[in-house]
Amino acid sequence: MMLAFTWSPDSLWLIMQKAWWFLVVLGILVAFHELGHFLAARWVGVKVLKFSLGFGPKLFSRQMGETEYLLSAIPLGGYVKLFGEDETEAATQDDRRRSFAHQGLWGKVLIVAAGPGFNFILAYLIFAVWLSFGYTLPVPSFKDIAPVIEAVAADSPAAKAGLMVGDTIKKIDGRDIATRVELLDAAAKGKGAPLTLEIQRDGRSETLTITPIPTSGRPPSPEEVGYYLGIEEVPPIVNEVVPGKPAAAAGFKEGDRIVSIEGIPIHTWTQMTGLVKESPGRPLHVEVLRESHRVSLTVTPALETMTVNGKTVEVGKIGIAGPDRSLMKSANPLTAIYNGLEATWKWTELTVIGLYKMITGDISSKNIGGPLTIAKISGEAAEQGPSNVIFLIALLSINLGVLNLLPIPILDGGHLLFFLIEGILRKPLGERQREFAQQVGLVLLVGVMIFAFWNDIERIFFSH
Q1: Whole-number Cα distances in Å, 161 to 155, 173, 449
Q2: pTM of the full predicted structure?
């Protein structure tokens, strides 16, 4: 039996766009990573034989000096081939001087660490330039996004359910969650249905049931889709209006306090974003308080996609930022130099903590994404504008740097682990030991890649 797949011209064009932006984003990340290895090797004095973007058969090559530059067929990485990676290559004294294997320990460490290092440098440069232009940069900590209860409003659904400050929500209706956004989204999408929460309190697990209420206080209807839990009391004050977004076009200004949306009184930032998220493409009548005067505005939320617990959801956004502790803004280009470092450190810290929690099972492994997910989010970022693509490159660059530093043989971190052992033992590991470790590392890496690719397939084709 044969299966026939038919693609409309629009679908083919969309796929081609996503594939193109995948190649652009991944190409920049790989090029910068390999450039780190290349420049460090040249600085130490090691001969660089090949610099390749991609793996497998070469599509294009050019010899420049002693290095062959290649574009290869499989665009899922790249490599720099150094002279003397095998000790037997260096036959003469001059060869040993240019050989990687015959360099001192610190020279080899520098060459290997420079790849991930350049990924962090790329992210820093993007963040610093971003901030120097006066743009606001989201820099959350894990505490900002973790599903930990920080406030419980009196007589709210959260208070009636028995939630307390400090509780950590682990599951909603049996599904693992990792962020507070997932809880708020579940409340909005449940249309007021009771939610079963598994929480952790003082080291023990408890099960509670919470029933979200409509933001207006009236029974829910298709037109009224905001729901309130009472776990966040951030006021609905506009701290920034993003240029070119719906809010800017509608006339929102910094300092506006949102009073109502479609006649529904607004008391918290979460309440406001809940209504906006559920209204992509639908004009909303908004009343704001501006310098003691009420001003009526009409804004149409733009449709954007986001990934929540491995699933793609469509939400409305208008392009405003509230009184959020996770936002960073530089006063001038000089402070942006320091703030760029701080932003890079905080995003790296968030990535490391998230990875650790994924390994320990605190975060669902369904959040691991592969090349299809990167292609998808690259295409979506491109649709939302160049700035989104640039920001995505910075975040993925940090992720690539962190992952490459994992102490897994075959990755840069695995080589650094070998060098650490060499420094302790005062001699390199034996060839058989290195080969065995490389084989184990290859199996682990292939296993993770297969798992990520399967997550991609489930997320894209079976999540609806």
Answers
A1: 10, 15, 41
A2: 0.68
Residue indicated by tokens 């001192």: 104
How many Å apart are CA 24 and CA 157, to the nearest integer? 47
Number of H helices and number of E strands within the chain?
13, 18
The confidence band for 464, taking pLDDT boundaries of 50, 70 and 90, is very low
Question: Distance between CA 322 and CA 271 in Å, rounded?
Answer: 12
pLDDT digits (tens, 9 = 90+) for 44-86: 999 999 999 888 888 888 999 899 998 888 877 888 898 887 7
Q: Which residues of 238-258 are buried (b: 16+ CB within 10 A; e: fewer)?
A: bebbbeebbbbebbbeeebeb
> Is a pLDDT exceeding 60 seen at residue 170?
yes
φ, ψ dihedrals at 253, nearest 5°: -135, 155
Active site members: 34
DSSP 225: -
Whole-angstrom distance, CA of residue 172 vs CA of residue 114: 42
> Is the CB of residue 459 less than 8 Å from the CB of residue 311?
yes
Neighbours of 75 (CB within 10 A): 19
